[in-house]
Q: What sequence folds into this?
């Protein structure tokens, strides 16, 4: 399969030129890597804007946006020192707050709001994967923490505040622990996605994987397979009870250790919708788009967005070339419709990582 993914013919994109990067405009290209019926309408309406929030000395990741009552856009994101390199997300990430007049203007750093708390805490060594939501008149910041700088203590938690400016009340215990030994999610819970269901329940979607991959055994290179589950509560703070039919998304049956991660879920036109990062369904470069009538049974994936080389003329350095892709897709929802797509990608001005912005047109 080609490494360069081409945009659809007939979509006119206006380049947004900055000192940070140049956007590719593959107009008139007719050579597509996928059948046209696999390209989602979501993908067809994406207009790349460019990198945002590049910070010297830091990797910046996991950009979760929300409109504030002040008329500004508030961004909650992960960052860690560049000295730790890319792997610092697992043992030194913190969650921060930035504000801009609109998504396409400059974001200004405000403060760090959640830092690792140290020995004895479930989020003692990292705070990562922020997801900001306004729920029941207050704000919920879902995130992942761990206690030992490794993946086997990754757990989802929930911090709450009455204002986007805080103060934030942090939980003493995770919102959702790992599953029992031998379960599909006995290794960790992470990468939260969340909706308040129309029936009033609180639905938490989460990524999990198992300590040993029974599906693909005995391949020694495969530790586990990433799948998505659902946990449901009657109150925002829980307790959250696992859906009995978990996992609700399992791509392992395709073989080759096919997986998914980084889900974002929303409701639009009375349909449940989801975008995720592909991990082998088509390849490891694109995003996937799915729909559901009930939030549990999902359609076959279509393409949500192409790979980085379809939108950028910026060239990755050799050390990141094989992992140069958009990850952690998050949406700014306005009037129940996606307005902007925030992703994360390595490279950029400081050859670290930053968010990358798309507009839905």
A:
């Amino acid at each position: 399969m080609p490494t360069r993914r081409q945009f659809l013919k007939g979509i006119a994109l206006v380049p947004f030129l900055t000192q940070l990067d140049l956007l590719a405009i593959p107009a008139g290209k007719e050579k597509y890597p996928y059948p046209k019926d696999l390209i989602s309408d979501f993908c067809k309406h994406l207009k790349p804007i460019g990198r945002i929030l590049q910070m010297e000395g830091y990797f910046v990741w996991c950009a979760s946006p929300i409109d504030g009552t002040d008329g500004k856009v508030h961004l909650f994101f992960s960052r860690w020192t560049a000295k730790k390199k890319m792997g610092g997300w697992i043992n030194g990430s913190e969650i921060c707050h930035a504000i801009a007049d609109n998504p396409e203007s400059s974001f200004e750093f405000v403060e760090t709001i959640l830092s690792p708390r140290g020995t004895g805490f479930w989020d003692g060594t990292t705070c990562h994967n922020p997801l900001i939501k306004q729920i029941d008149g207050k704000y919920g910041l879902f995130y992942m923490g761990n206690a030992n700088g490794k993946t086997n203590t990754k757990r989802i938690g929930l911090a709450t505040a009455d204002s986007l400016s805080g103060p934030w009340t942090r939980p003493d215990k995770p919102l959702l622990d790992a599953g029992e030994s031998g379960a599909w999610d006995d290794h960790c819970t992470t990468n939260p996605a969340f909706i308040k269901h129309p029936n009033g329940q609180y639905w938490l979607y989460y990524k999990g994987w198992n300590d040993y991959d029974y599906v693909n055994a005995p391949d020694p290179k495969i530790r586990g397979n990433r799948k998505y589950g659902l946990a449901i509560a009657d109150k925002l703070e829980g307790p959250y009870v696992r859906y009995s039919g978990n996992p609700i998304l399992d791509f392992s049956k395709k073989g080759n250790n096919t997986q998914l991660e980084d889900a974002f879920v929303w409701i639009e036109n009375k349909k449940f919708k989801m975008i995720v990062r592909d991990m082998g369904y088509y390849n490891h470069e694109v995003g996937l788009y799915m729909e559901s009538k009930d939030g549990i049974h999902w359609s076959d994936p279509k393409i949500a967005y192409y790979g980085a080389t379809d939108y950028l003329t910026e060239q990755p350095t050799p050390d990141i070339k094989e992992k140069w892709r958009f990850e952690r897709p998050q949406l700014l929802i306005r009037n129940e419709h996606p307005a902007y797509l925030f992703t994360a990608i390595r490279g950029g001005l400081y050859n670290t990582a930053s968010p990358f912005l798309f507009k839905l047109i």
The chain has one domain: 36-360. The domain at 36-360 is CATH 2.115.10.20 (Tachylectin-2; Chain A). The radius of gyration is 19 Å.
